[in-house]
Specification:
It is a single chain. The chain is built from seven helices and ten strands. The longest helix has 26 residues, at about 150-175. Helix 3 crosses helix 5 (about 190-210). It has two domains: about 15-150 and about 225-275, Cyclophilin-like (Cyclophilin, Beta Barrel), CATH 2.40.100; about 150-210. Helices cover about 30% and strands about 15% of the residues. By secondary structure, it is an alpha+beta fold. The two termini are about 30 Å apart. It has helices at about 5-10, 50-60, 150-175, 180-185, 190-210, 220-225, 245-255; strands at about 30-35, 40-45, 75, 80, 105, 120-125, 135, 140-145, 240-245, 270-275.
């Protein structure tokens, strides 16, 4: 994409792509939001199954919270992120992306129905360590680009994520039974330790079956293979919508040159956001 005039007229417009785009239908009762950027327009629909995120997004749009902010974090073959209300006219040498509204939203993770496929709209959040309930940022969001996968790599990722969650479940249970563990070790009661370990391993596996880290459905497999996405984020962040039109714009934004903080070296501005329906 040629951007030779970008320094004088701002970020260049996204060129029309010949790449086929997924067809996304919009139900009569679903809301659609238009995001007008300095590189082109993006339309997203909001899921009714995530009502808190849907209503909050619409509220912020109507309050013009997003008008004039930039995409402050852009990573090729991953995602583009915006939503910091303070990210307006920020000098390039100053930090950006730490601003937010003064509240978080409870997680609304509707998995495996909604996942991080190509074009997904999801809420940013703090990490699990400081945010164990996975509450969403009140304002910051990201649009998924990701990369295409093949079936073996998806199956490996599913196994890796579930193995990691199984270990985490087991470690959590061990912590809950730490007094017993310490007592048995002091008593050198090996049989009791092994019996407890076997019991906790069984419980950890049952927990995983009820709430897997990743559970690939046929539709997920098809989407990740044909279009791409970021499956390692599934079941961990709230996906509350998806792109209806303008993935060529999202793709173009994801490929702009960035600095070490993943901020575009030429600001990509969200000029205006409005609710279409």
């Amino acid at each position: 994409m040629l951007c030779v005039l970008a320094l004088s007229i701002g970020a260049c417009k996204a060129e029309k792509s010949d790449k086929p785009m997924p067809v996304v239908t919009v139900a009569d009762d679903e809301h659609v939001v238009l995001i007008e950027t300095s590189m082109g327009n993006i339309k997203v629909k909001l899921y009714n199954e995530t009502p808190k995120h849907r209503d909050n997004f619409i509220k912020l749009v109507k309050e013009h919270t997003y008008d004039g902010i930039i995409f402050h974090r852009v990573i090729d073959k991953f995602m583009i992120q915006a939503g910091d209300p303070t990210a307006k006219n920020v000098p390039m040498d100053e930090p950006v992306g730490q601003g937010d509204v003064p509240y978080t939203l409870p997680a609304e993770i509707v998995y495996p129905k909604y996942y991080h496929k190509y074009g997904a709209l999801a809420a940013a959040r703090e990490g699990d360590e400081e945010n164990p309930n996975r509450e969403s940022s009140g304002a910051q969001f990201y649009l998924v680009v990701g990369q295409k996968w093949n079936k073996p790599s998806l199956e490996r990722k599913e196994m890796e994520l579930n193995d990691a969650k199984l270990r985490a479940n087991f470690d959590k249970l061990v912590q809950q039974h730490q007094k017993e563990v310490d007592t048995y070790r002091t008593q050198k009661a090996t049989d009791k330790l092994l019996a407890l370990q076997e019991s906790l391993e069984k419980e950890a596996k049952e927990m995983l079956q009820k709430d897997p880290a990743m559970k690939l459905t046929d539709q997920m497999m098809q989407d990740y293979i044909q279009w791409g996405g970021t499956p390692h984020l599934d079941n961990a962040y709230t996906v509350f919508g998806e792109v209806v039109e303008g993935m060529d714009v999202v793709e173009a934004i994801s490929k702009v040159r960035t600095n070490r903080a993943a901020r575009p070296v030429e600001d990509v501005v969200i000029n205006k956001v409005s609710v279409l329906k």
